[in-house]
Write a structure and sequence with these properties.
With 228 residues, this protein is an alpha/beta fold. It contains 8 helices and 8 strands; from the N terminus they run ββαβαβαβααβαβααβ. The chain binds iron/sulfur cluster.
């Protein structure tokens, strides 16, 4: 298991809990607006995973949970053992995923290694590759989401509302998704690092908070549990 970075204490990454956030390198998608671009190729590793475990051992009772994010954590072969080690210390675990590995999620669910999942649904199915790169496939993401829904597990689906997504796109996405208990629309922020040829795409003016609220209202008849 490789760890690319760590936030020792966060109040915002795990709903209701004080958590440590671990960034796992490597991703099979290539979203043009990725905020962790240096993690995508998997070579950026700065933190010794044993040191992270030692840190978590010392923080038992002080932290509530651990967030595993990336990159895409489900690509890592040592993930199960690492989750099991963290779980054995008594921590709640949240996993952030792009939803591309339903088989890994199935295994995590069967071994009860996570308490909360956040899955990105990034675009209408027909635009997934345009926005997330050729490795992306919305059908597999929807399979992951349906899998979570069929288990008694807390999870959220979230969409970063990039300026390239229209109200019609969001409505299409709302209809493609099953009826969700938690659907979160997040504001887009321009990433610091991006592929130079994407300068125009990343520089488009983001929706304002008010516009985001309006978009949430526009899809609420399909996904009543949407929040912006
Ligand atoms: S799935 Fe996440 S980590 Fe991977 S490229 Fe997209 S935004 Fe970046």
């Amino acid at each position: 298991m490789k760890i690319a970075g760590m936030i020792k204490s966060s109040l915002i990454d795990f709903p209701g809990l004080v958590s440590c956030v671990l960034f796992v390198p490597g991703c099979n998608y290539n979203c043009f607006y990725c905020h962790n671009r240096s993690l995508i190729d998997g070579s950026y590793v700065i933190t010794d995973p044993r040191m992270v475990i030692q840190f978590l051992e010392k923080r038992v009772g002080l932290l509530d949970g651990v967030v595993i994010t990336g990159g895409e954590p489900t690509l890592r072969s040592g993930l199960m053992q690492y989750l099991a080690m963290i779980k054995a210390m008594g921590y709640k675990i949240k996993l952030d995923t792009n939803g591309s590995s339903p088989d890994v999620i199935k295994q995590i669910l069967s071994e009860e290694l996570c308490d909360y999942f956040a899955v990105d649904y990034k675009a209408p199915a027909s635009r997934y590759k345009e926005i997330c790169g050729n490795g992306a496939n919305a059908d597999v993401v929807l399979e992951t989401i349906r899998l979570l829904q069929h288990h008694d597990i807390d999870f959220e689906v979230r969409t970063t509302v990039i300026p390239q997504l229209s109200e019609a796109d969001l409505l299409t996405m709302a209809k493609e998704l099953p009826l969700l208990n938690k659907y979160v629309l997040n504001r887009y922020r321009k990433p610091e690092k991006f592929i130079p040829s994407d300068i125009q795409r990343v520089s488009k003016t983001p929706y304002s908070s008010l516009e985001l609220q309006h978009l949430a209202s526009a899809i609420a008849h399909v996904q009543p549990n949407v929040k912006a």
